[in-house]
Design brief:
single chain, mainly beta, 4-stranded antiparallel β-sheet, globular
Length: 169
């Protein structure tokens, strides 16, 4: 099994895949660096690198070693992305505090909701994908039940947070 490091370079807007055994670059994607350390995620199930497009509202899906990226647009710029451990969902947090959830295999946007009143810059799923945890510059950490997030009877309504931790410093 090949182990690869993913390196995002701000200077020249390049994302590199480097083979850890040989230290050779196995793939290079130009003109799009990840939006900071939380702006990249990798799905081992689908062999896809997901990168929030810096300074724009695009989320790029890279399929190494192909050069072309499939771009999904969010309604606004996203700073953080994460893939669920089972590889089913991609979640992204925006500068305006919204969270976007896509089905990774189809690229379909399943839900967009206002999670915070400031940037939702940290996201992660629990190990069983039943909860999404978001952290924000508004000094809150929120836990979202994925069953509530994906509730088909409430397609446009924001789910209620399962738990809220406030004023953490």
């Amino acid at each position: 099994m090949q182990e690869v490091a993913i390196v995002c370079c701000d200077e020249n807007d390049t994302t590199l895949f480097i083979d850890l055994a040989t230290q050779n670059t196995v793939y290079t994607q130009h003109n799009n660096a990840c939006a900071g350390s939380t702006g990249c995620a990798f799905s081992t199930q689908h062999n896809i690198l997901i990168a929030a497009q810096r300074k724009k509202s695009g989320v790029h899906f890279y399929y190494p070693p192909k050069d072309a990226a499939r771009i999904h647009h969010a309604a606004e710029q996203v700073d953080a992305v994460t893939v669920s451990p089972d590889g089913v969902y991609l979640a992204a947090g925006s500068r305006l505090g919204r969270v976007f959830v896509w089905q990774l295999s189809s690229g379909d946007l399943l839900k967009m909701f206002q999670a915070h009143y400031r940037s939702a810059g940290q996201l992660c799923f629990t190990g069983d994908t039943s909860f999404l945890v978001t952290g924000s510059l508004d000094s809150t950490i929120k836990v979202w039940n994925m069953a509530d997030v994906l509730d088909a009877t409430q397609p446009t309504a924001a789910p209620a947070a399962h738990r809220v931790v406030a004023d953490h410093h």
